[in-house]
Amino acid sequence: MHSITQSHTLSKFRRFCVVLVGCCLYGGATSQQALAQQAELYLGQGTMSGEVTADSVLLQTRLTATPTIDAKGDVPGATGFVAFQWGTDATLNEAKQTESSEAVAQRDFIVRWHLKNLQPGILYYFRALYGSDAAPKTPGPICTFKTLPGKDSEADVRFVMGSCMNYNKFMFGKEGKASGPVTATAEDKQLGYPAFAAIAALKPDFFIGTGDIVYYDNPKNDAQTLVELRQCWHEQFRFSRVINFLAHAPAFWSKDDHDFRFNDSDNVSERLPLPTTGIEVFREQLPILPVSDRSSPTYRTHRVNRYLQLWFSEGRDYRSPNKMPDGPDKTLWGAEQRQWLQDSLKHSDARWKILITPTPMVGPDDAYKTDNHVNLGGFRNEADQFFAWINENNIKNFYTFCGDRHWQFHSIHPSGVEEFACGALNDENSREGVPPGDPKGTDPEKIIRQPYTYDEPTGGFVLVEAGAELKIEFRDDTGKVAYSVTKQVD
Fold first, then answer.
1. Does residue 219 have a cis peptide bond before it, meaning omega lies within 30 degrees of 0?
2. Which among 70, 65, 40, 68 has a CA at the least distance from the CA of 138?
3. Contact 141/129 with Cβ under 8 angstroms?
4. Distance (Å, rounded) from C-alpha 133 to C-alpha 328?
5. For 274, which DSSP code?
6. pLDDT value of residue 219
7. What pTM does this model have?
8. How do residues 242-270 score in pLDDT, each as one tens digit?
């Protein structure tokens, strides 16, 4: 990972503030860093794994000066060293160990390690060793991840997809501008989102967070500076329910508008945070790419087993301006990503082809927006052309799974492409949906079929089991099944 800076044409006052923040972060042994060096060390955000494949995984932790959130609402970092132990023995008595890495302020005290040459379909155990010197000895909790079965395996996999984790609505209810029912108890606000307890009980092989993992733009916390952006991640990932779940389920992450810049953001405006900052902070905070990789795009594909291949699209980095008139030159993906997507789909022999997209491609959605592939003044031309390409090239059993929309739905486009929207993870961030035929929606003529949307707003997620059949379940944040569908080969 690397340091992140912002450049901008600012007022003199704002420029002074940004420079001052930069000095505090990068200016040698500041008083804050000196205190951190003297303090006890903790893993206040747990230890997680990400981007697991059949033979590799990324391990990550963050050294902190406090065991959890402090009185200022942050989890301050601490300097020190981290190594990872890993192996197939649950006790880790005969574990292998990585080299130690230093946790430094420039990387927000995050340490990440890329494990390679693993075996497919194997449950591995791992933990962080941490301390103040280069030979860290304090052991963290033992965690687990399971490698993907791989292309030749017929083993089923189960995964969960969730989105839209709004911290301020969860913690402050109506004061935090909650759009859905306010159900978080005092205990929930200590432990974290109830959905993660329900997901953990299902023991999925992995988790997909499809955007809006944090919200930079909030009435109580309109984050703009680097310090403020990072705090959004610290407060979100210090909940015990989140920590305990991610300790045993590797995750794949995508970003959307709120964990990029602000609502419906593109790359045009000069409003802070800048696009470059949003891109870099996301890559810094989550295990998507190795520390040293500053060039690989965050769109990618993973072959899971014999039956399933997943594609993860990037919806913010390459998009045309939202307000640009729709047409063949307007793109949400960018030409290179679109070509990569089509080429890799065409060459895949997976039975089930799932595109994980942060924003919807079928919808419907609100008519006033210009942010996504569904919106009338947005990027609909690109979606229509892509769906036509899917049919022209006889791409079978292709589905889109999206986040972003705060309600759950299963919709079918006139082209035949089906979309599954996981909705918001927490009740307070859910809302009523936009049905086909709504005059204030993107499908006033009701050409989209919608087999399912929930009757009342609720937090929840989607559970998928992929083998010879593809089973899809919509669940609320307690884990109760609201709707299910099973796909079979024609």
1. no
2. 40
3. no
4. 57
5. P
6. 78
7. 0.92
8. 999 999 999 999 999 999 999 999 999 99
